[in-house]
Backbone:
């Protein structure tokens, strides 16, 4: 008799192969048979009329602090994620000298918009070195597997102190000390090393992430340290400017060490065609023997604008700023006063930075999100076009929208991956052989973004609901966030429904799968706020053969563990 049998489902095994009906049998946390008719099980899940897939492997999250207090890593745990990889973009909480805790929190708060008060109250700091951080994570029971990377920013600050935080050039001795830490971290079980090289990433004090301007010598030596530690991915958040210089050291490092290198790829409005150039550069690097892969998203990197959000068109108008700290209900009541409304509308934003002003005044790229939320709205549905059709000024039109639903309405501002006002660029990226699905940013950007729901969005929009372009097949979508993501990070024991592999599985009511509108919650430590987005359709999520979620509710089973290093099939 099997420990668990998933009976009669439509099996989408993660390989991209065509779906087929049958049973999945599990014993001792491992899949023992797929397809056909399995024998009886001590526990059975009736999957007739449902879809059975591997659990999602999300390789780009920022749960580095939350992982120390939340066993479920919500909201990712709600969306079928069974493995979450943290430590991305060069930010994290190890290594950490005792006098650098607040600084590391400020770095994470600035780059990833996670409330510093929540991190200060939630993190217990049972470590200093990176191996000690892994040991602390390993002690906590959880409902999904977690893995992490050694973050460049923390390493640089640990070795160089303020010189590292200020992005001074590292000496040979600095680099040697940093390389030793990286190698030790990989030996202890890190999946690799991450760095940020984009000017968009800044600490709460405005300084760029340590490592943003690190020269090729430093980057090559830290990459070699990953190799000395065993094996791992080098993950990069970069502007790739100039791209020739960045690709030169990336290509050289990967060819020398054999390590995989991944970088974040997005489309931006200032250079809407650069993403194609970067994919061409990636293909050239791979032709030269480098293992370079672009990490891409499945929906725009956007902001949710609203009175509960950190950003909206009037957030820096003086008359609004005077009431900004009042409770939401009181703000709404005051904003409905015609006199205050007139003052706010007559003012202009005090923000001078061009990039930060965009969501305040680019009304042709601002949309009502709706229910169900629409992340691929056509240009004619923009606030600018709707206001013009109604014969009204767009700022007044937005003002009234923000007051709807008691001030809980959200507007959608897709800042990246939407320069063409459609998903055509994303479609090409997702289907490209040199890309991997990523960039959910689970746990991060709590005040303006909630993209941890990306795994569910991939199915509800790209497979079921898309009307403005081609769709993905269910088999393609499942492959993109299971076997494909797992293989890039060397996790060959999961992401595929195959006998002998780890029993991480989702059982999905695909026909009734739905993504809910985002809501603002105040459920982090210290009543910290975060945007959350739930969905429906996950009948069961299984980790290591145990049902951890059933119909959106945690079962109490905590079979998840820390994943140390690559995993063989």
Residues:
């Amino acid at each position: 008799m099997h420990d668990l049998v998933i009976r009669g489902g439509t099996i989408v095994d993660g390989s991209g192969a065509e779906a087929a009906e049958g049973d999945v049998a599990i014993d001792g946390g491992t899949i023992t048979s797929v397809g056909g008719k399995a024998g009886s099980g001590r526990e059975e899940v009736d999957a007739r009329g449902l879809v059975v897939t591997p659990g999602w492997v999300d390789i780009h999250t920022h749960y580095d602090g939350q992982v120390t207090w939340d066993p479920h890593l919500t909201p990712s745990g709600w969306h079928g994620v069974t493995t979450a990889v943290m430590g991305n973009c060069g930010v994290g909480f190890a290594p950490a000298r005792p006098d650098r805790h607040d600084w590391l929190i400020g770095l994470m708060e600035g780059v990833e918009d996670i409330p510093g008060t929540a991190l200060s109250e939630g993190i217990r700091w049972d470590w200093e070195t990176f191996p000690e951080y892994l040991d602390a994570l390993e002690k906590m029971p959880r409902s999904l597997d977690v893995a992490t990377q050694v973050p460049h920013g923390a390493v640089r600050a640990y070795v160089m102190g303020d010189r590292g935080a200020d992005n001074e050039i590292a000496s040979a001795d600095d680099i040697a000390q940093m390389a030793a830490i990286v190698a030790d971290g990989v030996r202890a079980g890190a999946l690799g090393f991450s760095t940020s090289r984009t000017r968009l990433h800044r600490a709460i004090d405005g300084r760029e992430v340590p490592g943003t301007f690190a020269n090729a010598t430093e980057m090559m030596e830290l990459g070699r340290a990953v190799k000395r530690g065993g094996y791992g991915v080098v993950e990069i958040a970069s502007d790739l400017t100039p791209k020739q210089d960045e690709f030169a050291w990336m290509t050289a490092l990967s060819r020398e060490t054999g390590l995989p290198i991944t970088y974040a790829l997005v489309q931006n409005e200032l250079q809407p065609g650069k993403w194609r150039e970067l994919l061409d550069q990636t293909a050239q690097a791979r032709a030269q023997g480098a293992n370079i892969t672009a990490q891409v998203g499945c929906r725009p990197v956007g902001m949710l604008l609203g009175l509960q959000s950190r950003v909206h068109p009037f957030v820096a108008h003086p008359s609004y700023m005077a009431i900004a700290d009042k409770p939401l209900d009181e703000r709404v009541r005051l904003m409905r006063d015609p006199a205050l409304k007139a003052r706010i509308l007559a003012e202009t934003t005090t923000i001078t930075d061009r990039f930060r002003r965009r969501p305040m005044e680019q009304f042709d790229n601002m949309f009502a999100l709706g229910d169900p939320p629409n992340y691929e709205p056509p240009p004619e549905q923009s606030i600018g076009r709707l206001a013009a059709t109604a014969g009204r000024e767009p700022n007044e039109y937005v003002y009234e929208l923000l007051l709807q639903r008691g001030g809980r309405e959200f507007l959608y501002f897709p800042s990246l991956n939407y320069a063409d006002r459609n998903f055509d660029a994303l479609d090409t990226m997702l289907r490209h052989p040199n890309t991997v699905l990523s960039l959910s940013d689970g746990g991060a950007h709590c005040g303006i973004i909630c993209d941890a729901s990306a795994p569910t969005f991939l199915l509800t929009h790209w497979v079921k609901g898309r009307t403005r372009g081609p769709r993905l097949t269910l088999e393609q979508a499942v492959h993109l966030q299971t076997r494909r993501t797992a293989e890039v990070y060397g996790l060959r024991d999961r992401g595929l429904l195959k006998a002998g592999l780890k029993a991480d599985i989702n059982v999905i009511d695909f026909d009734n799968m739905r993504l809910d509108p985002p809501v603002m919650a105040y459920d982090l430590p210290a009543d910290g706020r975060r945007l959350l987005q739930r969905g429906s359709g996950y009948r069961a999520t299984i980790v290591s053969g145990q049902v951890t979620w059933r119909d959106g509710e945690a079962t109490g089973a905590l079979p998840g563990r820390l994943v140390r290093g690559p995993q063989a099939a």
